[in-house]
Amino acid sequence: MAEQLAGLADDRALLGRTSTAERVSDILRSRVADGYFPPGTRLSEDSIGGALGVSRNTLREAFRLLTHERLLVHELNRGVFVRVLSVEDVEDIYRTRALVECAVVRGLGEPPYPLRGMAEAVAGGEAAAAEDDWKAVGTANIHFHRELVALARSERTDELMRSVFAELRLAFHLVDDPRRLHEPYLARNRRILRALEAGERAGAEGLLETYLADSLERVVEVYRRRVGEESAP
Questions:
Q1: What pLDDT score does 119 carry?
Q2: pTM metric for this prediction
Q3: CA–CA separation, 210 vs 90, rounded Å?
Q4: Given a cut of 50, is residue 18 above it in pLDDT?
Q5: What is the DSSP secondary structure assignment for residue 12, as one 8-state letter?
Q6: d(CA 22, CA 32)
């Protein structure tokens, strides 16, 4: 916990004079998504508030916002914890992803499309894999899908999926073999990108639909085993 709190102290400068619960929640959301506070971690109001230099009320409001986003959970008489997803949560996340991401691709107009962000995410994932940094590969993969969603040019859709992808990272943090989880999708990301570059919208949607179905099966298989192991006596 000391290392995590030291990292939060570094973020204190981001708050400036006009610190708000929204800014605190942005910082904590990023930290949770990056795995600084793994699923199941109890978040101390005193320690985190002190590290960020914010009042208890501001921090509680930030916790409330993140609880609404399903990243944290409040347990009566115990405190606030980083949420541990159930298998049903993971399945619901993927249902939402399929509905939104496939609809974004289906709704694209005539090419060419603004694909620079997706191309950078693909290149970033491949570079991270070359360095055997599979956590970074997972981050690049999320970035790829956020950029895909951004093709809709909808702030509301971006906001919705920001929370969905943050929840997805909670599941990734419990996976004990990130290479096995993420490596197969490096090439598949590039195939989707190439289809969009070629203006093949229907082809890209088909690739994406199969991709998400396969990813769901793989994540649920690994996640079910891991959660079962941790709950065993």
A1: 98
A2: 0.82
A3: 17
A4: no
A5: G
A6: 15
Element (H, E) at 75: strand 72-75
112 pLDDT above the threshold of 60: yes
Residue count of the chain, please give it. 233
Structure-token pair, residue 90? 């993971």
72 has which bridge partners? Answer: 82
Please tell me the predicted confidence (pLDDT) of residue 172: 86
To the nearest whole percent, how much of the chain has pLDDT over 70?
A: 89
Residues 6+ positions from 102 with CB-CB distance below 8 Å: 205, 208, 209, 212
CA atoms within 13 A on the CB side of 138: 24
Q: Which long-range contacts (CB under 8 A, 24 or more apart) does 95-101 make?
A: 96/164, 97/145, 97/161, 97/164, 97/168, 97/212, 98/209, 98/212, 98/213, 100/149, 100/157, 100/160, 100/161, 100/164, 101/145, 101/148, 101/149, 101/208, 101/212
Locate 156 and state its tokens: 């509301």
Phi/psi of residue 110, nearest 5 degrees: -75, 145
Residue 213 has pLDDT above 60, yes or no: yes
- What would the two tokens of residue 221 be? 């298989």
Neighbours of 156 (CB within 10 A): 8
